[in-house]
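Researcher: Good morning. I'm working through a list of sequences from a screen, and I'd like to move beyond sequence-only analysis. For each chain I'm collecting a predicted structure so we can compare shapes side by side. This is the next one on the list. No need for commentary yet; just the structure.
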Amino acid sequence: MAFSMEFGILFLVALACCAIGFYKYVYFISIGYGLAISGQGAAMLLLFREKIGPAVIISSLLLVAYGLRLSGFLLYREVKSSSYRRHMTTEIKDGSGMKLWVRAMLWFFCGVLYLFMISPFFYRCYNGNTGISISFVIGAVLMAGGILLESLADLSKSRQKKENPKRFCDRGLFRLVRCPNYLGELILWTGVLVTGITSLRSVGQWIVALLGYVGIVFVMFSGARRLEVRQNKNYGSDPAYQRYVREVPILLPFVPLYSVEKYKFLVL
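Model: Good morning. Structure tokens for this chain:
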């Protein structure tokens, strides 16, 4: 079975957590995103308390830690960084003219995406496969590695921008790929998929799990494209930046994909 009462409860949790987007629509995919993932991770501990075990606890806590770190970092940056607030004002529409039904649709689809993203772990628990296995260990390591990579990338970017707000980031992890925080996201959600991939028992469960994974991959590449367009606008005339984008892949390390700007289908 692809859907169940527990699945519906997680959907309501995701919607409740990302409802903050009604205050500022960009929060649907930023602070609300982090809250939705952490909320669902915590809800999993309650929903499957009868089947609780190391796998459930570890995966749930990783999701909670990831979501709280992300939403906390984004909120702190917005409150404390005046340069970021100026960027938000000039680069991102405030959504003040967005109709309520449009916001409601965005809220709904974000809730669906966030639910589908955690579905491999959900199905692992729902199908009773709550023990430690090789796939779980690999997946958990990838999840932890993704969280660590994203955290270090955000910290590195904050430090580099504090040192020189007008220069692009090109040190540390930014020598590996130009969007290391998005790479961390991809690794994390690959880990979530791996934790549950051996537990999927129906075509419906496979479809839901793969839709969630493909969805977040698309979002990350779309975010990378949006960042590339903005950086080309801000630094395109800088020879050092031109050399940097020719030498460093945009998102996937060791894969010679240096630009996604031309791919219009990535526009959200």
